[in-house]
Amino acid sequence: MSRTMTESPMRKPLTLAALCLLLAACQSAPPIRYYTLVPAKSGEAAAAQDPAYRVVVEPVGVPAQVDTPYMVVREGRSQLVQVEAQRWAAPLADEVRAALVDKLGPVVAGPGAQGDGTLPLYRLRVVLRRFDSVLGRQALVDAGWTLESTRDPQRAATCDTQVATSIAGGYPALADGHQRALADLAGRIATGLDRLHAGRTADVCVAANSN
């Protein structure tokens, strides 16, 4: 009993000090912010058009260096930094695919679509080779993508596209820059789809590299 009464006054200050340190750490931790690559809707519904074909957007491949919940920014020539307080709202591959689907719009079919015989069906595979983020400078997307018809194996094309957008400082500007880069990529893919569907296979990759 006497030993317990002697030790308790010594433990109190240590416990209070530890609690103060914990509270200080919690107060100093930056809030976690989440970003999406899918732009907000304008509120104005586009006029519905009957598509001439459908396209299935397959799962997207992303570089291992950026396949993380955190934003990864490039510093200097060779350093990559994960920013734990700045995160994507979903896995990066899912965010990129959702951005492409959003831009391609009504021609997109469900992932398991096999074609019903009424509309031609194409498949789109996209692999990002680079997804670079440089704060205050640029957001860069370097992608290889393949389009192929499910009916005609000869109607197919594999293209490369690199898009870089200039950005202001800050992480919201970085996310916006990648949104714009992916919208640009999706626009070129859409043009390529139209040309492939029209039988202009040789012109598909011309669209991929046009500015």
Q: Could you explain how this protein is built, in words?
A:
The protein is of the alpha/beta class. It has one domain: ABC-type transport auxiliary lipoprotein component (Rossmann fold, 3-Layer(aba) Sandwich). Helices cover 34% and strands 29% of the residues. Strands 5-2-6-7-8 form a 5-stranded mixed sheet. A 3-stranded mixed sheet has the order 1-4-3, covered by helices on one side.
CATH topology: Rossmann fold
User: Could you give the count of β-strands?
Assistant: 8
Q: Which residue ranges are poorly predicted, with pLDDT under 50 across at least 5 consecutive positions? A: 1-11
Q: What characteristic shape results from the CA principal axes? A: elongated
Strand content: 25-35%
Which structural category fits the helices and strands?
A: alpha/beta
**Count of individual helical segments:** 4
- Strand ordering within the main sheet: 5-2-6-7-8
Return the average pLDDT rounded to an integer. Answer: 86
CATH architecture: 3-Layer(aba) Sandwich
Report helical residue fraction.
Answer: 25-40%
Largest sheet, if any? 5 strands, mixed
The CATH class is identified as Alpha Beta
Distance between the termini: 83 Å
> What's the name of the CATH homologous superfamily?
ABC-type transport auxiliary lipoprotein component
From the alpha carbons, calculate the radius of gyration and give it in angstroms: 25 Å
